[in-house]
Fold these 2 entries.
Entry 1:
Amino acid sequence: MLAKRIAGLEDAARLKTGRWSGWRPFRVAVLREEARDVSSFALTPLGDAPLAPPLAGQFVTVRLGDADDAPVRSWTLSDHDDAPDHYRLTVKRLAGGTGSARLHEIGARGGTVWLRPPSGRFTLKRDGFMRVVLISAGIGVTPMLAMLKAHRARRDSPPPLVWIHQARSGETHVFAAAAKDAALAHVFYSAPRESDAGHEAGRLGAERLREILAPAYTTSPFGREIELPGIYSDVYVCGPAPFEAMVRDALTAMGVPPGQIRSESFVPAAQPEPVIAQARVDFGGVIAQWTESANPSLLELAETAGLAPGFGCRSGSCGACESTLVSGSVEHSPSPAIPLAAGRILLCCARPASDVVIALD
Ligand code: FES
C-alpha cells in the first residue's frame, strides 16, 4: 500500500522536474524503421540542462524549424524512462502530411527541432490495484508502449495488464515484438498476410471485447490475492476516433464505469461557465471586448483581434499558449494540466474574471 502511495507521489513530483519554458532545441536521429512508413526517432537536447521526465502517455509539442512561424505538431512519446537523457517519438509518415514528412526529413539529415516539455492528461495511473487494460489501433500503439514499460517499472507488485491491439497486418503492426512479449496480448489483423502468425483475424468488436475482459481476474493489492469482476479495470484507449468510440460504447455497455475509461482524444464537451458578463482585454495595446454571450477563450479572443499567439493542443495540456497576466484575474476551465508559475496563464482555457491586461509571449 505504501509503495503504491509513493509511486503516485513520485509521478506527481515528476511533473515539476526538469521542465523548461518556451522552445528548447533537440537534435533528431533516426533510431529505426518500425513498419512501413513508420520510424522511431531519438530527440536529444542540446546543452546539459536536465530533461523533464514524462509521465507514460504524454506528448510533446514540436516546432519543425527555427522560425517562429514554422509548423508545430504534437506527438506522443513512445518510450518511458523515469530519468531520460532523450525522448523517443514514433511517427507515421502520412500521405499529404506536411508535419510528419518534415520530421522524417529532419531526422534523415540529423537536424534540429524545438520542443515544449512533455504534457497531456492521458497518463498511466501507477498507484492503482485494478487490472490495467490497454486497447489500441494503428499508430495509437505509441502511448501504449510507454505505458507498458512504465507499468513494468512499478516497484510494488503491479496488477495484471492486458493489451489488445488492432492492426491491418504484420506489415503495418508497429512494435509487434513488444506485443508478443506482453504476457496477455491479444492482436487482431484485419487483412493478415499468409506469413503472419500469433494474431486473431478480423476486427475487434464489442462481443470479443466482452469475452476477453468480462471474466474475473485476480490481483494482490495488500499482499494477498483477491478476485475482482472484469469490469473493475483501468482502461486506456488510443486509436482513430471511430475505434475509440466503438470501444468506449462496448465497455460502457459491459458496465465498466465511465471514469475508468481514458482515451487520448476524449475531451469533456461541457462549455465553461462564464463568471462575469463582459470584460475589457488588453493584449499589450491591442484591445478586445470579451462577452459572456460569445464566451471565447482568451486564445480565441486574441485570434479574433488579429493576433497570432502560439498554440498547440488548445485544451490546456501542452503549454504552447502560456502567457503573462499583467493585471486582473482569469478562470481556467479545464484546469491546466501543467504547473504554472504565479502570474502565468494558459490562453486556450482561460476566460476573464475581470478586466485584464495580458502580455503575450
Ligand atoms: S494550446 Fe496547449 S496549453 Fe494552450
Entry 2:
Amino acid sequence: MFSNSKICILGLGYIGLPSAALLANKGYQVQGVDVSSHVVDTINRGEIHIVEPELDAFVRSAVNSGHLKAGLQPETSDIFILAVPTPFHDGFVPNIDYVLEAAKSIADVVRPGNVVILESTSPVGTTEKVAKILEESGVDISQVHIAHCPERVLPGHIMRELVENDRIVGGVDPEAGEIVANFYRTFVSGEVLVTDARTAEMAKLTENSFRDVNIAFANELSILCDKFKIDVWELIRLANRHPRVNILQPGTGVGGHCIAVDPWFIVDAGGEDARIIRAAREINDYKTEWVTARVLSEVQHFEKSFDKKPTVACMGLAFKPNIDDLRESPALEVFQALVAENIDVLAVEPNLKEHKSIRLHDFIDASDTADIVIYLVAHKEFSDLTTKGKVLDFCGVTVKQK
Ligand SMILES: NC(=O)c1ccc[n+]([C@@H]2O[C@H](COP(=O)([O-])OP(=O)(O)OC[C@H]3O[C@@H](n4cnc5c(N)ncnc54)[C@H](O)[C@@H]3O)[C@@H](O)[C@H]2O)c1
C-alpha cells in the first residue's frame, strides 16, 4: 500500500532528520523540509548539523541515492510528518506555534487520500488542532488520514530505536489510526499499538511524567536522608531488596528537553488536578537549588576552618551521564549559581572538548587539586578518581565503586 509513497517530513532536527534518512534508506522518496536554509543546505550536501551516532552514514547514503532531498517549502506528497519543536513559553505554558505553522504550511499541498502525522510531543488536543487548521485552510479533512505518533527514542541510540521501539498511533478517527499504524509497520520491528489521538498524546506525556515523579521520590529521599544523617544510596539499595520496590537513583535534579519539559503540558491543562505531577516538577527543580545551598554551606565551613577561599571542582555539567548535552542541565545551573556567588569554581565536563563561555578543566587535575569536589553527574570517567579535598557526591558516582 505504501511502497511508492512519497513522504514529506517537516522539521529536520533530532527526530525529523533521522526519520527522513531511515525512510529514504528503506526506499521511500523523502522530501525533508526545514525553515533553516543552513539545515537544508547541509543535508543536501549529504552532511549533518546535529550529533547522533550513525546518522551521518544514513544521510550520506540517502542523499547520494537520490531518495532524500531537503527544501524550504513542502511539496505534494502522500504522507506528511510534522516533527517540529514543542517548547514552552514563560510560565510553563506549552508553545504549539511551530506545530500550527507547520500544519498551515502543508495546507496547499495536502490532497484527498493523504496521511498527516504529528510526531512532536504535544499537549492533549493538538492533533485535533492540526486537523482544524487544515480544515480552515480549505482541506477536506474527511478525505485525509490524520494521526499522532509520539516519538520515544533515546538520543545516542536513535537510529536503532526508531526501528526497534514499540510505537503508539492515535488516529483522529479509527480509520486514520489503522492506516497510519500500517505505515509504521513498514519500517518498525517493535509493536505498533493503535488508539485515539488524545490518548496517544497523553501516553507520551505520561511516560515522561512517570520518570519525573519517580526521580522526584528519590530526590526527596536524598534530601530527607541528609537531614536524618542516613546514607541515601545504602537506604535505596536496601529498600530495593523488597520484591516490589524499585526506587530510582537521586541526582542533581532533572534536565534535558523532555522529562523536565513535558510534564508541564499536563500541569498546564490539568490545573489543580495535576498535583503529583506538578509536585514532582517542583521537587526536582528544588533539588538543584538544594544542591547549590549544600555546596555554599560547605564553602562557608571551609572558609571558617581554614581562613581562605576554597576551590570547588564541579564534576560534570551535562544533564545526564556520558553525554555532552547541556540543555536544561541542573549541573550547569549549580555551576552558574556558584560562579554568581564568586566561588572559585573549576568546571569539568569530560564529554566536551571546549565551551564557548566556560573554561573547562581536566577532570583528573581538578579532582586532584580542588579543596571541595562536588560530583554533579555520574560520568564514567569519575568512577575511580583520587581526591584530597572534601567530596560531596550528589549523583552516587563514588558509591558505585563499592
Ligand atoms: N530530541 C529528542 O530526543 C526527542 C525525543 C522524543 C520526542 N521529541 C520531540 O520531537 C519534536 C522535535 O524535537 P527535535 O529534538 O527534533 O527538535 P529540533 O529542535 O532538533 O528540530 C526541530 C527542527 O524543526 C525546524 N522547524 C521549526 N519550525 C518549522 C516549520 N514550521 N517547518 C519546518 N521546520 C521547522 C527547526 O528549524 C529545527 O531544525 C519535539 O516535540 C520534541 O519534544 C524529541
